What does this fold into?
Amino acid sequence: MMVQSKAARLRRAIIAWVTVALFVFPLYYWITVAFKNGRDIFNQPPKVFNFSPTVANFQEVFGVSFGLPRNEVLAGGGDFFMAPHLWSSVVIAVFSTILAVAIATLASYALSRIYFRGRHHFVNWVLSTRMMPPVAIAIPMFFIYKDLSLLDTYLGMILIHALMNLPLAVLMLKSFFDDIPTEIDESALIDGASRWKIFRRIIFPMAKGGVAATAVLCFVFSWTEFLFALTLTQTSLKTVPVVSSTFVTSVGTAWGNMAALGTAAMVPAFIFILLVQKQLVRGLTLGSLKQ
Amino acid sequence: MPHIEFNKITKDYGAVNVIRDLDLAVEDGHFTVLLGTSGCGKTTLLRMTAGLETITGGELTIGNQRMNEVHPRDRDIAMVFQNYALYPTMSVRENIGFSLEVAKMSKGETAKKVNEAAAVLNLTDFLDRYPRELSGGQRQRVAMGRAMVREASVFLFDEPLSNLDAKLRAHMRLEIRQLHDRLKTTTLYVTHDQIEAMTMADKIVLMKDGKIEQSGSPDDLYDRPATKYVADFIGSPAINFIHGTIEAENGTPVFASVDIRYPLAPDCAAQPGQAVICGLRPSDLEIAVTGDISATVMLAEKTGAEQNLHLKAGEQHLIVVADRAVPAPTGQSVDVRINTDRIHLFDAMTEQRI
Ligand SMILES: Nc1ncnc2c1ncn2[C@@H]1O[C@H](COP(=O)(O)OP(=O)(O)OP(=O)(O)O)[C@@H](O)[C@H]1O
Ligand SMILES: [Mg+2]
It folds into this structure.
């Protein structure tokens, strides 16, 4: 640790706190909106702390009465109004993440370790698919999905999100594998291990942090993806980003409801990140080499 | 009996030629050291032996079997890498036992072998630690242990001691050599440190630019260096070179340079008029009352029991190893005696030994 004067430490702490506040404040404000009544939401100047909290927004969005007489809280939409969509989002995000990370881990290990003609171009090509604006393939995708009867299905959404995530996941994981010295593979190769065994027993455990980071990225992408979720679903399957847009109506935007849904939607993502963050700890390669 | 044979081995990386037509026989049970400066192709040769690098041309045999196309795991070799390449997510015990686990050896037997190796290498107390919790020397020993338990017929070492401090290096040198004396496993050991090579090797193979400059016992290379390059590489402090010509004086050849004249043995193969380089090892020179060269002391470096005297004879710089008792204040005039039968003569053009 560097020795620092008191003033320098204080300055550092202040900068750190201001930065954190800058990031956290919008989130905090959004959450307060979810707990405000209509009057407080539009109050000028904005009420940051001194509003009277209410769960009405949540009651409306999720159609549960929390013990109150039902007809007093339910504006419409019926029982558990938005809850099934939250569940759909979870299913799609979780499975598309698993699929993308599973494929990307194997693919990027191969791209990192196995030499073949034109490997370099292959990597660039993989990345280039990510450069294309997704909207360019939205309509073709719709027709393909229609022909394959994938519209409005979990499978369809899981596939498209995994597909969208693959290039970045492959590239990200490849850089993690590239950081692991090939001597470790070679040493295991001489020890008699097969490629698969080396991957499973040695390399994958070393790259766990990278896999976790990639999984978070994939999950968040799927959780927030709007374009394909909108175009490739119709009635039976809808994700949170798509349904939250229904609160923007011709007679105005239901900010309180939207914030309530958004706040609720943070919870699963938060839980997911909490689950994988244990693996995000880096420094596992430490000590394998001389330095 | 040769255990490993390199037959006209060539290695190219694309258009870059790294090793050309290399012939070498590694004797069964011997400790052979590949010595050379950085970039001369030592690691490349070792990796080709291990099967980690394809062989561009020529044939490699181990135990009389062609190995060019054989998978690393089927070559019956064990290798210690320059950076150890330990498995960081496994404990020392698992690291050492990994090859046995792969070979599906029973738990009991694996444990027995790992414990044996750990005992030999003084690692018993560290078996449950992870590589990141070990010192450099301990990591080095884990890498050795990993090679040992395989009971392979060939050990390959790639500069295993290069990152240890001087004292530990000297200690590990001894340990590796003792281990070899006990196991008698054919060993190919790469280093760029000539002291390591001199102290450990049965046979030194000195490489230069992907070719073998000279191979032989440490004494061979020290006493009869085949080229000026070898003479320069082996020995510390480095050998003195004096450029001169051969002159005939009363029928005996004499070495003559600007600053030094010295009669050579009558049976010397050098021809009168030949331009030569004379190599004189610092330890073959002696400060004497009356000597062959008179010089002035420039600097005395104390090394402990001895001192390296940097002298100037005219324009010629000379290093002499002398006992520390020899008084040598800077500026003092001294006489240097040459040990006649320890003169190394090289042709000035070809730099080959005469
Ligand atoms: N993959 C590669 N592609 C191209 N050239 C290479 C490759 N690997 C090694 N070389 C070249 O081959 C030569 C020999 O390399 P090598 O690693 O065998 O040297 P070395 O004798 O082990 O050196 P050091 O003592 O520094 O480890 C070097 O000039 C190096 O630049
Ligand atoms: Mg090397």
Summary: Chain A is about 70% helix and 0% strand. The pocket of magnesium ion (ligand 2) is lined by residues B 42-43, 82, 158 (CB under 6 Å).
